[in-house]
Amino acid sequence: MKRYPLLLALLTTGMMQSAVGAPLSTQQSQAPGYYRMAMGDWQITAVSDGTVAVPFDKLLTHITPQQMQQRMAQANLPVNAETSINAFVINTGMQLILVDAGAGQLFGKAGGHLLENLRAAGIDPDAIDTVLLTHIHADHSGGVQRDGKPVFRNATVRVDQRDVDFWLNVANKNRVEEGQRHTFAESERSLRPVIEAGKLSTFQAPEQILPGIDAIPAPGHTPGSVIYRVNHGGKTLMLWGDIIHAHPVQLPQPEVAIHFDVNQQQAVATREKVLAQVAREGDWIAAAHIAFPGIGKVMKADQGYRWVPINYSAQ
Ligand SMILES: [Zn+2]
């Protein structure tokens, strides 16, 4: 019993004494955040940009605080759950395509880990030839620039024209909630270096990006939000931006929206349509904001839908 205060003191400083007497550190970081999935001879790599605590109790709409807390508690999560920011790399053997670029310098230490995790995964950022953005929001597009220079030097950045028209025009400021107006300055900061380098190329979804990869409109969260659909090797993978923010809430209740949505009603309609389709088709999902690696399937549940994460594979 005499040693207890010492042990407590050591624990509070993050150090413990090992059995052989050497101090053990409790400060190590996680394993690098990447995870691979095969699609025939194509390879998908989920790459983590970080995790950020999101105050869902202040942000979700069309639900009572009690209902929300209950849904989160059923998933063993607090109402301000630590939420993943995931990006994905598609390697076709001929091309290396990054889907979303993380937050870069815009989220402090919570985000901006994409580059170190890409390198840990053996992916050279200079080898990426295309960056596909699901939409222009800080946690998806912030990582295309660093200190005013494009990060993926050899890549063309592609995004739906409707998001460029919306977020790079401050005249639209009064069309979003006051709390979301910072997005205009962030969009300018993220995309201007890419535009000035002549590396931005827009499209109008639905549009084929390249054989096997299509951009599908998913408007509501932002006007030019898209889903990228990858069809290869007998599998279909849907790469989601902000279709889902809090899956324990929005899968059973797709009508729950978030203050980040430019048009909540349209975002709900899109979510309902997308969920019904992927559950029916059995498509794979790669989601920006479902716990890393964010790969899994959506299945029908007694009420709405549920998330079934991919089984871990060491192969
Ligand atoms: Zn997002």
Give a written overview of the molecule:
- Residues 4-12 have low confidence and may be disordered.
- The protein is 25% helix and 30% strand.
- It is α+β, with helices and mostly antiparallel strands and 315 residues long.
- The chain has helices at 4-12, 56-59, 65-74, 114-120, 138-141, 161-167, 182-196, 247-250, 264-281; strands at 15-17, 23-25, 34-39, 42-53, 60-61, 82-91, 96-99, 130-132, 145-146, 149-150, 156-160, 200-203, 207-210, 213-217, 226-232, 235-240, 257-258, 284-287, 295-300, 305-309.
- Bound molecules: zinc ion.
- Zinc ion binds at residues 137, 139-140, 242, 288-289.
Task: List SSEs in N-to-C order.
Answer: HEEEEHEHEEHEHEEEHHEEEEEHEHEEE
Main sheet: strand order? 3-4-6-7-8-11-12
The percent range for helix content is 10-25%
Largest sheet: 7 strands, mixed
Bound molecules: zinc ion
CATH architecture of the largest domain: 4-Layer Sandwich
Instruction: Give the overall form.
Output: globular
Helix/sheet category: alpha+beta
What is the assigned CATH homologous superfamily of the largest domain? Ribonuclease Z/Hydroxyacylglutathione hydrolase-like
Strand content: 25-35%
- In CATH, the topology of the largest domain is named Metallo-beta-lactamase, Chain A
Helices, by number, come to: 9
Radius of gyration, Cα only, in angstroms?
21 Å
Number of strands: 20
Mean pLDDT score: 93
